[in-house]
Amino acid sequence: MASNSVGRWIRSRRLLSFVKSPEFRAEKTSYSSQQCLLHSSSKSMNEESNDLSNQKEATTESEDFRVYQIEGLKKAPSAKRAEQWSKRAPPPRYHSMPIDQDWTNVWPTATTFKWSAIPFPVRQGYVENSSENESVIPSKYANLELMKGPNFLHLTPGHVKKHCKAIKHFCTKWPEGLQTEEDCHKHFPLESITADYVFAGPTLTDDRARKACIKFKLSDLDLDYHAKDKFIRLVGDRYDSATDEVTFESDRCPLKSQNLEYVKFLLTAVYFESWKIEEWEQRKELSDMEKYNWDINKSSKTCLSLLKTIKEIDNASGNETSKLKYLPEDVQDSSSVYDLSEIHQYKTAVEELVNDGENVETLTSYKLAVEKLLNLKTDV
Amino acid sequence: MSFHHLLARSRPFSSSFLCSRGIFSTASLNKNRKSGVPKITPFRTKPLTYEEAVPPSRINVRKGWLSFNTTNLHEEKRAGETTFEDFLVRRFLIGTWHRSLASEVVIKRRHNMVILSFLVSMERLLPRQVYFLQGYTERLLSGWLKMPVKVELQTVASQRDMVFKKI
């Protein structure tokens, strides 16, 4: 109800009521009598006599019997009327609203539900029986329930259009060449994750917002076998083998930017550290290996010696049918033996069997590799 | 007089003694005492607003909350401070809008803004007094709470307009 026009309205109403009120009439009469007195100095005799007769009349009137006024019998005009008028609220705004008005000017921002500015009927509440509000759901006037919840009267399509028009000036075009997720990942492999907290309180800062985190795929880093292995060992559980992602997180510094800088430093430090080969790393033994490697294990030597024995027997017997045909003439050269496809298949099968565990696929491939290696016949 | 002598003269601590003093501790006797549920008068003359008529057990069913803030959400802070501030604000408003506060005070907090919405009865107030009190409330509370306080009040012609039912 706050506006200048309202104030003016109230003042004018008060003036109007004052004109109507008996006090005003009394003042008016007294003024006229004063006027008479002022003019009396220049008055003629007959005028004076008129005045005298008037006075006489007044005295005769006053000499009449006074009529006893029973208090409260006649309804006297209320002296408080002017005050009451001034207190009465102006009519609600929705009465004077044109039907084609711009709603965004009526309700420009988020504010509490205001019944006097709502041009449509709304009711909220629950009535159980006729004893409650004459079994009518409370209307929008004097309804606190409607004032409680948030409303969306400031977010109509008209408002949204206006907002968009206002902020369009600040928007820029989406960069070329970043249409897909893969493009984005290719050009920006490092993902940094930070959070801001919005809450109700006297300050907008929150100590939880200092946390910073970076994420990247290990395959995006330029690493060889040793460096990759060392990197994974250094970062520990920050590496997720399922997604090939490394996550660095920090909340040790008081500011977000400091934490972000720190995690980037961590990445740099771990990267260069993983490329270094220390003197003690040369003393890595079979039991220190991160996974089963057929080339350096006993299995490769056993396989080679077995093939050599088979070759010796084959050469001695001279039976063409039972010979291993894929073996070269010279089995003393171990590198040529290792390059054979049968050996390679066996190697892969054994590595898979040990690294991935025993399951139907690894066992079947192992069986096939062994059959091929030793020229076994299963259908016999 | 010795302590033992006093003890001998005092009434025995029995169940009949408890009943005569009106001390009950059983649940069945307290079943009709509930907070926020007003007692019915003999001739049903006590006027109630909607807020008073709906019991607290119906909050979020038939009526809404009176305080809206984020502090009671999971892992949020300042729950105690906010509750105390709300208490302070309500007390202050009852005193400032003395006999003219027609409803409860709804305290909404958005970011660092505190929005107070309530209904004011115009029976004892002039419009200019309402404007003054609105500014007074905003200024003083903003200073105390260290947050901008906004008063979004609405007026009712009389306290009678608020009556929802009589019990």
UniProtKB/TrEMBL annotation, chain A:
<dbReference type="GO" id="GO:0032543">
    <property type="term" value="P:mitochondrial translation"/>
</dbReference>
<feature type="region of interest" description="Disordered">
    <location>
        <begin position="37"/>
        <end position="61"/>
    </location>
</feature>
<dbReference type="GO" id="GO:0003735">
    <property type="term" value="F:structural constituent of ribosome"/>
</dbReference>
<protein>
    <submittedName>
        <fullName>28S ribosomal protein s35, mitochondrial</fullName>
    </submittedName>
</protein>
<dbReference type="InterPro" id="IPR019349">
    <property type="entry name" value="Ribosomal_mS35_mit"/>
</dbReference>
<dbReference type="Pfam" id="PF10213">
    <property type="entry name" value="MRP-S28"/>
</dbReference>
<feature type="domain" description="Small ribosomal subunit protein mS35 mitochondrial conserved">
    <location>
        <begin position="206"/>
        <end position="274"/>
    </location>
</feature>
<keyword id="KW-0689">Ribosomal protein</keyword>
<keyword id="KW-0687">Ribonucleoprotein</keyword>
<dbReference type="InterPro" id="IPR039848">
    <property type="entry name" value="Ribosomal_mS35_mt"/>
</dbReference>
<dbReference type="GO" id="GO:0005763">
    <property type="term" value="C:mitochondrial small ribosomal subunit"/>
</dbReference>
TrEMBL record, chain B:
<dbReference type="GO" id="GO:0006412">
    <property type="term" value="P:translation"/>
</dbReference>
<dbReference type="Pfam" id="PF14955">
    <property type="entry name" value="MRP-S24"/>
</dbReference>
<keyword id="KW-0496">Mitochondrion</keyword>
<comment type="similarity">
    <text>Belongs to the universal ribosomal protein uS3 family.</text>
</comment>
<dbReference type="GO" id="GO:1990904">
    <property type="term" value="C:ribonucleoprotein complex"/>
</dbReference>
<dbReference type="GO" id="GO:0005739">
    <property type="term" value="C:mitochondrion"/>
</dbReference>
<protein>
    <submittedName>
        <fullName>28S ribosomal protein s24, mitochondrial</fullName>
    </submittedName>
</protein>
<keyword id="KW-0689">Ribosomal protein</keyword>
<dbReference type="GO" id="GO:0005840">
    <property type="term" value="C:ribosome"/>
</dbReference>
<keyword id="KW-0687">Ribonucleoprotein</keyword>
<dbReference type="InterPro" id="IPR026146">
    <property type="entry name" value="Ribosomal_uS3m"/>
</dbReference>
<keyword id="KW-0809">Transit peptide</keyword>
